[in-house]
Amino acid sequence: MNRISPLLLAIFLISCGSSDRKTSKQDTVSKETFEPKGGKLYTVPAELVEISGISFVSDSVLVAVQDEEGILFFYDLNKEAITRQYEFWKGKDYEDLAVVGNDLWIVNSSGALYELKNFNNGPSKPNVFKTVLKEENNIEGLALDKKNNRLLLAVKDLSMDGDEKEKDIYAFDLKTKTLNIQPVFSIRLSEIETFFKGDEIEEVSKKILKAVGNQNLNKVFRTSALAFHPKTGELYVLSSLNNIVAVLDQKGSITKVLELDGKEFIQPEGLAFTQDGRLFVSNEGQGKQANIIELKYED
């Protein structure tokens, strides 16, 4: 298991199972380790202490939202500073956002979507789309599924069918502007659990086992963000709890589980890729200085 040492950051592939056991779904999971090349940390100002979502406008500028105010913040990675900001709506609990061409979509925790046309030109009145999702579902993840012309919305707490053993991801069709109430992906929490069992488990994952031992799988994985890898098409799903990322293939099967290890990962809430595959994670401050971390690795 390798670490990203420059900032004491690490991204881990946790895989279990020994070669002398019978073949199972767990044993077929790729055991390829991401080889880290180094990491970079960007500190962000106090306005973004509760940064809750990021998306790239270009490979050097990202747009961020924090969950206490309806304000967009444009952060330049080269200048390591907010270069502009503007209010798009009142209220709070804005959790994630996704750039779709010239437009920007933002989701709040109750599943309402806000469409800002030509958002780079400055403030304009958003188109608001209510969905059947509710506050109890606690939507925290939003991502563009460009291939299927839809947005994906991920629950942090309860799926619409009330099944506490999974975290569902729903699709909002960008053409019809409607939400499919049947999940397009489901993360079975028992599958996450299997990655942290077995006689080859690493010491670093014991904190995960402690949560599993409480028999409360809802406390093992709580979705806070998601994003598609621009090259592989895999869906990366971030959990703010236990600092892990589930990587799903195009069929929705978990192929990897990654762990983010280091004191800089205060509370991972945002996840985004640049077009060339650079991965960034944003962290709420939780009484400390919030940050954005770039993780470099081999695909």
UniProtKB/TrEMBL annotation:
Location in or out of the cell: Cell membrane
InterPro entries: Quino_amine_DH_bsu (IPR011044), WD40/YVTN_repeat-like_dom_sf (IPR015943), YjiK/CarP (IPR009722)
Keyword Cell membrane: yes
Keyword Ligase: no
A Pfam family this chain is assigned to: SdiA-regulated
Alphabetical UniProt keywords: Cell membrane, Membrane
Full protein name: SdiA-regulated domain-containing protein
Classification of source organism: Bacteria, Pseudomonadati, Bacteroidota, Sphingobacteriia, Sphingobacteriales
